[in-house]
Design goal:
Length: 299
């Protein structure tokens, strides 16, 4: 029988709690739900709130079928908020917004990665942050990503911008920068310019082009996720990996001191201790006082 639980007055059916979703650690769906409810809810919800959410679903674990969806899944409860997100192929399209704990647990029960854009639903295509996705091409690792991140931090600081880091939860590193609201197209143009500069400054290490033949041993500075149509893994989401790795905020001391890829791998079981020690390291992204304007003269 499917268990029914009540979360803040909402009744939820939670299914297959003993199913193993992360085979390398034997982590079950019940343990995944416990991570979101007991550890992550207080920090992931502020980063999800008021943003249309896209889901990467992995109901049978990372070795099963993975599929990306922006539309509200069939059976979405009427109490889960949605917002219009018109697309060229569907002007009436809507997406889920995860506004509270019941919606978070409903979505987590679907077995998903959470992905969000750089803008809020009330101001579509007006970004309130910039993102760089630093993606290593083997044999490069997150260690090389950290070297590129340090260069980008100083370059952004020269323009009066403050960067914060998190692991992708996979191979790479994300840098995020709080901004005063500005059109996504302008952020994309600025981010591309810095990616080109990074390649020029670090020619043996950084790359601004996606072409696969150029990638081995280098770090692709992916600026494209600043496009209004793109999304990035939300802070604290679990990833569809053999282990329950988390897209986890990290300190600049950790980035500077990274010498082994394993040093910046964080799993669900690591996060309670990190949150107790650091709180939400990406809290500044949510503070309007920390936002800065895109530099004057940025196209």
């Amino acid at each position: 029988m499917t268990p029914i639980t009540e979360v803040e007055g909402r009744r939820l059916s939670l299914s297959n709690l003993d199913k193993v979703l992360h085979p390398a650690t034997g982590t079950t769906k019940g343990e995944v739900l416990h991570y979101y409810a007991a550890t992550a809810a207080g920090v992931i919800l502020p980063h999800l709130r008021d943003r249309p959410v896209s889901f990467l679903r992995y109901p049978d674990g990372p070795g099963g079928q993975l599929f990306f969806t922006k539309n509200p899944p069939p059976g979405t409860p009427d109490w889960v908020r949605t917002t219009p997100v018109p697309r060229s192929e569907d002007p009436a399209a809507r997406q889920v917004m995860v506004q509270d704990l019941p919606a978070l647990m409903w979505a987590a029960n679907l077995v998903v990665e959470f992905h969000t854009p750089q803008w809020r639903a009330k101001e579509p295509e007006i970004a309130d942050r910039l993102v760089f996705d630093l993606d290593p091409g083997s044999p490069a690792t997150i260690v090389e990503c950290c070297a590129v991140a340090l260069w980008l931090r100083e370059r952004l600081a020269a323009d009066g911008l403050f960067a914060y880091g998190k692991t992708s939860g996979s191979k790479g590193l994300h840098l995020l920068v709080p901004l005063e609201p500005v059109p996504s197209a302008e952020v994309s143009a600025y981010a591309k310019r810095l990616a080109v500069e990074a390649e020029s400054a670090l020619p043996g290490l950084a790359l601004h082009r996606m072409k696969r033949a150029l990638r081995p041993g280098k770090v692709f500075v992916d600026f494209s996720q600043n496009s209004a149509s793109k999304t990035t893994a939300t802070p604290y989401t679990l990833r569809a990996r053999p282990e329950p790795t988390v897209s986890a905020p990290v300190t600049w001391d950790e980035i500077e001191g990274c010498r082994r890829p394993e040093a910046l791998v964080f799993r669900a079981q690591d996060m309670a201790g990190r949150l107790e020690r650091y709180g939400d390291l990406l809290g500044p992204l949510l503070d309007p006082e920390r936002a800065r304007p895109l530099p004057a003269g940025s196209p």
